Amino acid sequence: MRADRRHELKENELAQALQNARVYLDVHGKQIGMGALIVLAVMAAVTFAMRSRAAAVEDVWRRRNQLNFESLEEGKKSLATLEGITHELSDRSFVMGALMDQGREALRLAQQVPFPPDAELNRKARRAFEDLLARFSDNPLATGSALCGLATVEENEFVLDNDLSHKDKAGAYLDRVVADPRLNSTPYQRMALDRIKSLDATFSKVTTQAPPPLPPPLPTETPSAPVDEPKAQPVEEP
Q1: 198 HSE (CA, 13 A, CB side)
Q2: Largest Cα–Cα distance of the chain, in whole Å?
Q3: Residues in Cβ contact with 137 at an 8 Å cutoff, skipping those fewer than 6 apart
Q4: 3-state class (DSSP) for residue 58
């Protein structure tokens, strides 16, 4: 077949394809236009959702950075605010960091009150570390922080009620840190080993003796009434 003939056939095929496309658009134009609008609407919704999510994450991080845990009263207020922020967002990295901060700050604030530690703050620390362990057990950093934090919670509970069962619970948490291969050679594991060695000293009962009785008061002498000396009689001259 000559080249000009092949070129003519290709032109005819192209013209036929264009004609078929026009016919198809005439028949299905509305459906295609509606589909295109739907695709554009979905893309716009996804873009808006991503931008809104990014703005929400940025906002909670800004609010987190404004919290103040220095004083006891400000720390309690900031801790309550941080708990509320944590429930507002589903971002895993933020939630994990927020739970770790809640536990650490609650334990630190609990030690700022006069002896013994603050029971309510200690309970807040327990809730934060238990939530951290339940939700992020696949993360070794979260696991080590939660287990070591829970061991400290048990130490504080022992100070509050002198119940030796807290020693076994704290030891179990520390044993889990030592046994976790993901935590090998980490500060969490070294700290857990040191704390296991000192469990007996940490959980030794402190007995407070009553102060010795005060010595009896010294007897007081009652001063006697002054004795009148006899007056000298005048001597009469002869």
Answers
A1: 10
A2: 195
A3: 143
A4: helix
Give the global pTM: 0.64
Instruction: Classify the C-alpha dihedral 111-109-170-187 as positive or negative.
Output: negative
Boundary-marking domain end, from 66, 82, 114: 66
Query: Token digits for 27?
Result: 């028949």
Do the domain assignments include residue 118?
Answer: yes
Close Cβ partners of 163 (under 8 Å, ≥ 6 residues apart): 157
Locate all alpha helices (DSSP H) within the chain, ordered by sequence: 3-65, 72-88, 92-110, 119-135, 140-161, 165-179, 187-197, 199-202
How far apart, in whole angstroms, are the C-alpha atoms of residue 62 and residue 56?
10
Return the structure tokens found at 188. 């969490």
| CB contact at 8 A, 102 and 86 | yes
- Count of domains for the chain: 2
What are the pLDDT digits (tens) for 153-196? 999 999 999 999 999 999 999 999 999 999 999 999 999 999 99
Question: What tens digit of pLDDT does each residue of 16-42 get?
Answer: 776 776 776 666 666 666 566 566 566
Q: How far apart are CA 38 and CA 46, in angstroms?
A: 12
CA distance 75 to 206: 30
199 and 116 share a domain?
yes
Cβ(173)–Cβ(147) under 8 Å? yes
Judge whether 99 lies within some domain: yes
Q: Which residues have a Cβ under 8 Å from the Cβ of 24 and sit 6 or more positions away?
A: none
The predicted-structure confidence for 114-131, as pLDDT tens digits, reads as follows 777 899 999 999 999 999
Full residue range of the structural domain in which residue 170 is found:
69-203
